[in-house]
Amino acid sequence: MSELGARASGQGRVFQTSGDQYIQEHHHHYGAGADGPLFAGGPQSTAALPAAPDSVRVPLVGRPPGVLRDREQPREALTAAVTGPGGGIHVVHGMGGCGKTALAYWLFTEAVRTHRRVGFWVNASERMSLRAGMLAVAGDRGAGTGELAAAAAGQRAAADLVWHHLDHSADPWLLVLDNADDPTVLEDGAWLRTSERGTVLVTTRHATSPLWHGPRVTRHALGVLPLDDAARVLCDLAPDAGDLASARKVAERLGRLPLALTLAGSHLAHQLLESWSMDEYDRKLAEESTAIVDRGATGHGTGQSRRLVGRTWQLSLDTLASRGLPESTTLLRLLSFLAADPVPLTLLLPLARGEMPVDGLEPAPAAERLEPALRGLLDHSLAELVETDGARCVQAHGVLLDSVAAGVPAGQRPVFAEVAADMLEAGLPERDDESVVARGRLAVLSPHASALLASVPNERTAALAVRVVGQVYGAGDFGGFQDLAPAVAREVVNCLGGEHRVTLDARELEARAYFRMGRYDESVALHREVLDIRERLLGTDHVDTLRSCEGLLAPLLLLDRHTEAVGWGRRALDGYRRTLGEDSSQALNVWADLIELLPHTDGERRYEEEGRALIAACERALPPDHPTTVRARQNFAWTLCTVHRYEEAWQLAPMVLADRVRAQGRDHPLALAALCLNAVAAHGLGRTAEAIGMLEELIERREGVLGPAHPFVVENREWLTRWRAEAAT
């Protein structure tokens, strides 16, 4: 009786298979005394025997590839193999959909048509198809009916028979063992061997099998295509749908995965009722992603799981589950709620140690099984290990993650999102950490916070994304911050509405991003909008309201609206002093910003008294080298430069620069501001050559951080021109 509960009676038979198979049954009727079928010891044994494939001389692939793009390196190596003396095994490995079978098809065609090799193509996805195919190869190479019948009936070693005839083949050959994703199928019975008469090519998703490490085995890792080649695949298949520039956008969104590109191109080329352009298809992908990609398989004989983006990975996950690793599915589902960027392995440690609740996840992940589950994903090319900023990370392809996420049951989505949020939150640096290390870690984690918010928008994921944006700003990654803040703000507004507290935090950060971009008027307008809502909802002395007042100070200063800037700064300062205390870091921070405005509003009457009092208050109330204390010294030094007291400014400037570099790194924007301070002070002291050298360094580094068109960079270039002219006279 089969596992499906089916029974056979009389001459009926039940066939079962797993994986992705073509199943065919042939009926032969023999008279009394006739010999049995070719692959049986007699009529009585036919029920347990596989049918021979229709052909081993033709590649049994669902869709023969057209033009094979890129792959120059493996193509060159494989061509050399089939034109040489033979005797080697070549293993092409990579994730599902990366084009392993397409490369094998190309080589098979080249070997047969150009290099006069006999080509054999065997489906090696499971024992039944491998055994039947290899016996058919032996029959092609001259094995007699009796030999084959004995091998099929288990009365003779089948693998020995096949390789005996391959070794004695009159013609050189190429043997392709396609879809060998379970290497034990080849290992059991020793089906994988070498012969001086030919070359063996294996395609597999399994990247780490010991079988691939023999002395005569050459491995070829296959990944996604380069962008231009990926775009040309789309243009090859749908030449009327758009130009190369449009194809590049679609190819990038599809992660340059050959299977996805092939299906997308087929979809564009064979539409009947609609006729989308590449640009329209790109917009549809933004809305539906892989849900529309598999439509390219309709009506083209490619309904197998291996030919569908949404199903090809499931074959590997099913294999892992059958081997006792259902946690691999759970882990990949968890990763699917994050971005298709590297995920630090440290994020998974709390799960592996059982330190994080995972109640409700299905399949239920046992902590001690997480590492084997991760190894299973790596072994089956569902993910890979990469290194980012010196940290080991795991990364999966974006289209894979998208299709896996689409298969997560609706009731499970909030549970997975909660665990993913816990992981990210545990991996974030401390809130006040502005170090180089913190900046690097935030750069790695910020795409995942944004992706989680987009995947499951709710108050928890929104608050986490806004926290990450705020920390990216605090750590000084203004380039990343400028892109991140507006995008997160839009998502949060859509999720929580315009007046939720988290929304207002997000929009405040967006206003600060406009300031860092040099868009000062937009920054002021958005700060005012947020301030009005906060005043109405929270009151005039709420800390959030005061923070909006503080946010107005810097852009108004750079717009030369000094009186307005002082007014908002004073309001924030007085409010912080009432609410949090005179020595709070918030009050001292605003006071430090106001110091710069004194020469513009009060002349020279109060700047020195205020500056000395501020620094003394910071040193009294805050720990040594606190960022607010450094800020106070830096701003006071700028004030001294403004009133041309360069000697006194120089007494502070080098110390400020050293403090900034030590705490935040050479390229932090505040460290660059300190370098600018030193250049101005040196120029004011008449040390022109030294000042020009510092200014040249400043421009180069600021361009890298802020971009060449930023107002600070433009202003610095104007100074450089003027200072060089001064030096030449």
What average pLDDT do the residues reach?
A: 86
Classify the secondary structure makeup into a structural class. mainly alpha
State the distance separating the first and last CA atoms.
101 Å
Measured by DSSP, the beta-strand proportion falls in: 5-15%
In percent, how helical is the residue content?
55-70%
**Large-scale geometry:** elongated
Low-confidence stretches: 1-6, 22-49, 299-303
Biggest sheet strand order reads: 2-3-4-1-5
Instruction: Provide the gyration radius in Å.
Output: 34 Å
Strand elements, count: 8
Largest sheet: 5 strands, parallel
Tally of separate helices = 32
Protein topology:
Elements: H1 72-83, E1 89-93, H2 100-113, E2 118-123, H3 127-140, H4 145-152, H5 158-167, E3 173-178, H6 184-187, E4 198-204, E5 217-221, H7 227-237, H8 244-253, H9 258-269, H10 278-288, H11 290-293, H12 309-322, H13 327-335, E6 343-344, H14 349-352, H15 370-379, E7 384-388, E8 391-395, H16 398-406, H17 413-427, H18 436-455, H19 459-474, H20 478-496, H21 501-516, H22 520-538, H23 543-558, H24 562-579, H25 585-595, H26 598-601, H27 607-621, H28 627-642, H29 646-664, H30 669-684, H31 688-706, H32 711-728
Parallel strand pairs: 1-4, 1-5, 2-3, 3-4
Antiparallel strand pairs: 6-8, 7-8
Overview of the molecule:
With 729 residues, the protein is mostly helical. Helices cover 57% and strands 6% of the residues. The strands form two sheets. It has a five-stranded parallel beta sheet, with helices on both faces. A three-stranded antiparallel beta sheet has the order 6-8-7, with helices on one face. α3 (127-140) runs parallel beside α5 (158-167) and α25 packs parallel to α28.
